[in-house]
Amino acid sequence: MSRRRPIALLAALGCVALTLTACTSIPLKKPGTLSVVVGFYPIEFAAAQVGGTHVTITDLTKPGVEPHDIELTPLQVALIANADVVAYIPGLAPAVDEAVAQNNPKAALDVTQGITRLSAAADGAQSCPAGQSCPFVADPHVWLNPLNEAQIANNIATRLATLLPNDRSTFTAAYTALRTTLQRVDTAYTSGLKVCKTRTLVASHAAFGYLARAYDLHQVGISGLNPDAEPSPERLAAVAAIAKVSKVTTVYYERLVSPAVANTLASTLGLATAVLDPLEGAPPHGDYTTQMLANLTTLRTGQGCT
Predict the structure, then answer these.
(1) Phi and psi angles of residue 274, each rounded to the nearest 5 degrees, phi first
(2) 277 vs 68: CA distance, rounded Å
(3) Same domain, 173 and 269
(4) Which domain does 203 fall in, by range?
(5) Number of domains within the chain
(6) CA distances from 142 to 35, 67, 120, 134 (A)
(7) Distances (CA, A) of 12 to 9, 36, 70, 82, 269
(8) Is the whole-model pTM more than 0.70?
(9) Is 209 found in the same domain as 88?
(10) Strands (E), the chain
(11) Are residue 19 and residue 98 in the same domain, yes or no?
(12) What is the pLDDT of residues 74-123, one digit of tens each?
């Protein structure tokens, strides 16, 4: 039997009994706000934009940490157990999935509702059948299509309005403003990636399936969905062959994961490398929107777009 629920309750009770200093790792909920616990940065961004001063947000993924394999502390489990909303993407961080299911299922919010999921197989090329459960492992990186990020924000705004119905118009207005901004990002991608020398996107981590599908690119992931997986010699050879045929000039790697795999392939083929940030953590500068536009600039250079 799992011990996560008792741990959560003990941690929460401990913070009530102990001094404020002893519990500084748990943010205090501001009076009159909703406690929103999020799995990682793209959800935090959306929640902050639509929730504003009506929410107190806690991100379970620490800065500089890759979210796929996070392990939760007892205090973080306590946060989940006592949250008004736990916004997360099922399949991205198994520890979060388990903690929500065991400790606070009523607060759970799958932010991918209304988003067509892609398969983790075949570099994210297969869609999940409409209205059916995916018969495969679904790629969780939905936020890298800005219109999907807008849907994430919509899902959060809808839940907040359910909990604070008197503020529904505020949440709706904030969501509408964010959606307009994200639609501009989508338009920039559509225009900026319309004409490119190569439409094959080679990345060390196959996180860009949704972006590739939205803008007519073909993603080829060296290490697949798991950024820490070591590619086999056969996989490296297969990707190298695709890169040659597709006249790829750039291999992309991400900020929070070692570039060793990308460097190995690039060195072998005499290609350039560039950082393409999957936004699994907060960017070093700016926010989701500015980093997505920075990614577009990187892609236009790497793909030879005009």
Answers:
(1) -155, 150
(2) 15
(3) no
(4) 194-302
(5) 2
(6) 24, 14, 11, 15
(7) 5, 16, 21, 8, 54
(8) yes
(9) no
(10) 34-38, 55-59, 85-88, 108-110, 200-203, 218-221, 250-253, 272-275
(11) yes
(12) 999 999 999 999 999 998 898 999 999 999 999 999 999 999 888 765 45
